[in-house]
Amino acid sequence: MPFIGDYDNIMRKVLVVTDSTSDITKEIAEKYNITVVPLNVHMDNEVYKDQVTISSDEFFEKLSKCKNLPRTSQPSPGEFIEVYHSLLEEVDSIVSIHISEEMSGTLQSARIAAQSIPEADISIIDSRSVCMGLGLVVIEAAKAAAEGKDKTEVLRVIEEAKKDLRVIFVVDTLDYLEKNGRIGKAHAFLGSLLSIKPVLAVQDGIIIPVEKMRGSKKALSRLVETAREEVKGDFLGAAIVHGAAFDKLTFVRDELQARFSEMDLILGSVGPVIGVHAGPGVLGLMYFVR
Amino acid sequence: MEVKILQGDDLKKILAGAVAKLEEDKGIVDALNVFPVPDGDTGTNMYYTLLSAHREVSKIKSRPSSASEVADAAALGALMGARGNSGVILSQLLRGFASGVKGKTILNAHDLEVAFKTAVDTAYKAVMRPVEGTILTVVREAAQAGIERIKTGTTDILDILEYSLQEGEASLKRTPEKLLILREAGVVDAGGKGLMVAALGGLNALQKRSPYEKVKEVKPSVETKAHSPISTADLEYRYCTEFIIKPKEADINIDKVREDLTPRGDSLLVVGSPDLIRVHVHTNNPGVILEYGLLLGDIDQIKIDNMAEQTEEFFKEKKPLGIIAVAAGEGFKEILTSLGVDVIIEGGQTMNPSTASFIKAIEKVNAEKVILLPNNSNVILTAEQVKALTSVQVEVVPSKTVVQGISALMAFDDTLDIQENLQAMTNSIKNVKSGEVTYAVRDWNANGSNVKKGDYIGLHGSELKSFGSDREEILIKLLKEMLAPEDEIITIYFGSDITEEEAEIVKEKLQAEVEEDEIALEFYYGGQPLYFYIVGIE
């Protein structure tokens, strides 16, 4: 009998695919057998595969020297086709979960890829989220798949996770989101002559404004308070991510520690693609309201 | 010159021309990009997608290559190299085209007709929720025009493609009518533009294959009009005209009706059955359209709207929630406006605004509900009285200082209702401590301190914190008195009596004082009279 956490001895019926905007680490991807398809990062005249040929640290270092605004682009349908084909040799069903369609065309590429293999059973899911928000949903799905659950059950787990998911974050400046056209409804926060630290959230696939704050600590405390208000029991299956702002991550972790008796946190950093859009100094908190 | 057939090599030429033209003009296309994600890379993405298609095509070994071979290679290359949404749609157009010409060595006009159709169908199928006013619309209408041209018996492929391109350009011009976001930005659709650029490049390349007469270049006519709102004068057709026809004759042809009305306007819809036809058209002459309907039978449910007026009305619409603030000083007015205040009433400590000036401001803001920020303890009561004097729902956030008003504005959220905002904004007042440096207008004895007339005084609320003859020292003392360990930011708004140079000196001095406490210091021009410095600490 397999012991808990040993996922390798169970027959999988479903494999989970996501894209690199999920910002799940290699270790997590390996542990739960998740295939991550990278987006592209364009810096000056170089093209990198997100978190494959460029790491988060390398990206933020290059960002300061980059002459032009870096760009990102979705994987091509062809890249998804290759991934699906190779996975279909192992399983009959693929569940492919991705960044919100409002933020990227990645889902579009995945959908076209799935359509071009009509004989295969591939479910394309819009997570309506991004970053570790998407990552947490993917992990839930992969856990279910690793327990040997079938496609219907995995899809149900995903829907539950999407419903319970909260993503709230602070950026140093709205400039990056604005310049890259990902600002969503947070454009309401633009134009302020006073410097503000915007508290934002991802809701139903887009970025929404939560509150303008004066001062970084106040903004970070707001994240912690929101989590404390929304999560009734222990703080489990949650994540904190940072973009070149480790001090903020430790601050938020410590503040959470003071408020929750039990915690189970994934600590990570945002990858280059998210980094392009959120900018350095971003701090995000992702959790389930359960 | 005429072109009756396309060989594989012609398709290669078209593709190469499209790539070259897109490379040249991709910047123009990038600049138009506002939908679906305004990230300004549509042209670049389409270019790289076609470049990948071109690379795949150049790998073909067989000479001469068949049309089908070239189309397949292009489709594969585009699929592998597709970038961005429009790139993906482009790859689907190529895929559809390839499936339409499957097995063909050469293509004639009829083959083109089939391929146009499969290309458009495939692209539409690939998009979950096709949005009109995008590259999809442009390609559909361009292809449709080409197909119609072929149906009239034209076999000259150059003629067909030119006609198709011309209609594509017209369709591109109409994209802002179909998609609000384009209208607001004052641009045509970027993907559609990119497609037209590529098509033009392809057509020109094909034309050049003949040593004879050079067909005149079809120039794209629509360029960006960076971010001007749509003006009513831009409406090409003014009257939205709708009615139903109950035909006299039973054998009426709906397609014929559509054809007859097409030159009369745009946004034309003719639907229904031979015994009941619904007509919808934007036109400048509704009378002519109605006359036409009468020729066919009885008309009913006639509805004619002047769209120019609709647009104007739209712009006059009331805001759901407005904000009025009281402030003195140019700098403060700008800061408050940048934080969402609609109307500012001049006033403050020395000049308390009247209820009448509030009423006037409420009329000016033209909102269904209004939040007032008195920003002075002596004005709160006046603001409260305004509630009873107007039919507009008014709520007062009891801000005693302009610094509190700014803090309240931080919590404003126009997606919430007035009560929720009132609560959040009132709570937010507590987040900030306000202080000010001014001078004593008379001798004053407070808590055993003997303040002389003309002394500079530092106040926190109504409490005297520092006084003396050195203005900057008074400011520093005041700040020290107010600061608590949890504070993060000191914001200083300097008044109209402080010069830039003076402000600079104070800034440097203060910077040195607070450096080790990791406190951020921000300086803004408030421009207020009488108060040399107004400070907020949070």
Tell me briefly what this model is:
With 290 residues, chain A is of the alpha/beta class. Chain A has helices at 26-31, 56-63, 77-87, 106-115, 131-146, 151-164, 175-179, 216-230, 246-259, 272-278, and strands at 14-19, 34-37, 40-43, 46-49, 71-73, 93-98, 121-126, 165-170, 197-203, 206-213, 235-242, 263-269, 283-288. In chain A, strand 1, helix 1 and strand 2 form a beta-alpha-beta unit.
Labels describing this entry:
heterodimer, A: 290 residues, alpha/beta, Rossmann fold, Hypothetical Protein Tm841, Chain: A,domain 3, 2 domains, four-stranded parallel β-sheet, 13 strands, B: 538 residues, Serine Threonine Protein Phosphatase 5, Tetratricopeptide repeat, Alpha-Beta Plaits, 4 domains, six-stranded mixed β-sheet, four-stranded antiparallel β-sheet, 19 helices, elongated
Count of alpha/pi helices of chain A = 10
Arithmetic mean pLDDT of chain B: 85
Structural class of chain B: alpha/beta
Q: What integer value in Å does the Rg of chain B equal? A: 34 Å
Count of individual domains of chain B = 4
CATH superfamily (homologous) name of the largest domain in chain B? DhaL domain
Count of alpha and pi helical runs of chain B: 19
Architecture of the largest domain in chain B, CATH level 2?
Answer: Alpha Horseshoe
Radius of gyration of chain A: 19 Å
Q: Structural class given helices, strands, pairing of chain A? A: alpha/beta
